[in-house]
Amino acid sequence: MRRGGGIILRIRKRMAIFFECRDYNSIKEVNTVGYVKMYFMVVCLCVSICAFAVTGAALSSVTSLETGGRHDDMTGLTDSDVGSAAVKDVIPHPADGNTDWRLVLSEAIAYLSGWQQGGNPMAYAIRAAYLWQNGEWYHYDAEMSAPMCWVLGAVEPEGEGDCQEDEDCDDGDLCTEDRCDPVLGCVNAPIDCDDSDLCTDNGCDPAMGCVYTPVDCDDGVECTADSCDPATGCVNTPDDTLCDDGNACSDGSCDPATGCVSVPITCDDGNACTNDSCDPATGCVFVPITCDDGNACTNDGCDPATGCVSVPITCDDGNACTDDSCDPATGCVSVPITCDDGNACTNDSCDPATGNCVYTPIDLDDGIECTVDMCDAATGPLNTPNDAACDDLIVCTVDTCDSATGCVNTPNDAACDDLIDCTADTCDAATGCVNTPNDAACDDGNPNTLDTCDPVRGCVYTLTILLPGDVPLELVWIPSGSYQMGRYPGERTSDANEEPQHPVTLAYGFWMGKYEITQQQWLAVRGSWPGTAPSADFGLGNSYPAYNISWDDTKNFITSLNAHIVSSGQGPLTVRLPSEAEWEYACRAGTTTRFYFGDSLGCDGVCADCAAGTLPGNRTDYMWYCGNSSPGGTRPVGGKTANAFGLYDMSGNVSEWCEDDSHGRYTGAPNNGSAWVDSPRAFGRSRRGGSFGSYYYSGRSACRVFVTPDSRSNVAGFRLAAVR
User: Fold this and answer.
1) Would you call 642 exposed, middle or buried from its count of C-beta atoms within 10 A (0-12, 13-18, 19+)?
2) Contact 32, 164 (CB under 8 A)
3) Nearest to 638 by CA among 553, 534, 514
4) What angle do CA 417, 422, 423 make, to 5 degrees?
């Protein structure tokens, strides 16, 4: 049996090689009788397959798994049913009365192979029955070889079957390299995890693969820097800085074998003048020793080689004027000799070279220019303030002498009061009085007036009436007051009809035309001229005064203007001619001289020009008369200097109509400022101020002439007064 068994073994191996069994070398010689039975079954299987193929009675085609699989018309199975319980229900069994010997044989062989393999026998029964299809072997390598290998005893390891690709050989172990060998089948070789790094320990975890664990290079010495070089392995480098124990009095170093070593340092600097020690926080400390012997008469020092040295000092100051000595407690003492002569007016001193006393008169000048400097031998210098020396010629400063600082010139605003209520009066220490107009001080609360402050006249209130065509007519406010009306006694070039001079009190203020009525204003109100129109021969233009106007003509103008004021809503205001008393009061503007600008007594020629008198300049700066109106004729209004009330051309240019009747003297004249009117009215009316063609004296404030009310002349015009 042993010999027969060897022959069978060789046959088994050759068949295993034919069926490409992976483990054909593992087939061992076993019980020969048992395997003879198996071989008989194999032979029967082969005969069955051949007979099945020759008869052509193969069932309907079954396509391989690789081609997608179609169902078997006979069994109703598909490739996906292989190995399932459904197969047993379809394949007939001899006990069921099956008469198809090929199926019975296939089933028997399948059970045999299933028993040998330990798997589902039906899978291989079906594959054996349908072995031949369309002239090709069907799944020979994949389906037929496996059961035959089991039958032959070329058993594969449990859980493995024949392999087609490397993926079929994955054993789930990351520590093996898995591949499929065409001859050997699956090969699972251990992988090499060596990374050639001496700083890691190499190993392999079946679940994780290669594992590299860093080696521990700690040598247990605290002062070495432990590291690892992949090429050489662990490196332990001594580091002295790791041995610093925080004590500045020791020198720490690192011994690779024993660790840190601390050696005390030496702090002796070899200097006898210091106390040497060591501070653990800072290191060596060298404190200079104190060599003071407590004697102020010695110079105490220290020699680095020997220590403290005390040398007596010399107290001679080289000054013949002192007595020199030394006090151990305080040191050198130099006592000046006494040279006082008892005279407070001398500076007493000693000559250091000779020791002789020197007596020099003191300087009495205290540097204050306004003091009188002298000296009293008993008391010394006397510096007496002199206020007169501080006069700065500024009238508004109070000049005093301060003995410490000198002249003090204190501004005194009160000294600058100009009696003009609307000016701010101050004293400038450099220039004197400054009188600054303040328009706000003149606010009369009337929104229709322009309120300004004139530094000479004081508050000036201007009311503007808009005539038809918006032509402005300006009126100036004349405050209430009293004055002496008429010529003063002995007034040069005056007339008897200007007397007697008498007091007049105007208890009311009133408005007065700033200028004479102009040609533009006349035409704006009346529209045409009542008689001869103005011409270039006597002055023609909007700003020229209206002339060739009778007293009666002025009444017509006033009537028209008052009607316009009412209709234009500029009232309540009534315009009229001024009375003689109002006109002279407004002309004088507080003066008592012949003219509002002064007496002007410097010349007697009727057309002569000379100094104005009270105000600066000449007559010609304030009036139009025969002396400055060549060729003759009117001039634009406002061309000369106004009076203190801000009224222009009160002397000259055109003679101005007043309301009063003609009266040869002021006997019986009213004293309240009202017009002196007779009933019935007298033959003549009053005119004031003179004209461009008059002699200079016709422009006096008191001068008056009488003309019939219907008379028109190129020298006659008017200005208006108004009351509310």
Assistant:
1) buried
2) no
3) 514
4) 45
Alpha-carbon gap, residue 334 to 323, rounded angstroms? 5
Residue whose entry in the numeric block shows the structure tokens 């073994």? 9
**What domains are defined for the chain?**
2-162 (no CATH), 363-436 (no CATH), 442-723 (3.90.1580.10)
Which residue is associated with the tokens 């500029």? 570
Going by the DSSP 8-state scheme, the letter that residue 539 receives in this structure is -
> How far, in Å, CA of 435 to CA of 216, rounded?
105
What whole-number distance in Å separates Cα of residue 538 and Cα of residue 548?
Answer: 10
pLDDT digits (tens, 9 = 90+) for 110-164: 444 443 444 444 444 444 443 433 333 333 333 444 545 544 555 444 444 468 8
State both tokens at 115. Answer: 């028993």
Any idea what DSSP says for residue 618?
B
Cα(579)–Cα(716) distance, integer angstroms: 17
Pairing of strands 716-717, 655-661: parallel
Q: Are 504 and 673 in contact (CB under 8 A)?
A: yes
Beta bridge partners of 400: 408
292-332 pLDDT, tens digit per residue, is 889 999 998 999 999 999 899 999 888 989 988 999 998 99
17-31, 181-195, 331-345: least confident range: 17-31
Question: What is the distance between the alpha carbons of residues 368 and 400, in angstroms, rounded to a whole number?
Answer: 12
In whole angstroms, give the CA distance from residue 682 to residue 419. 43
Q: At what angle do helices 2-18 and 32-55 cross, to 10 degrees?
A: 40
Separation of CA 192 from chain center: 72
R_g over Cα of the chain: 75
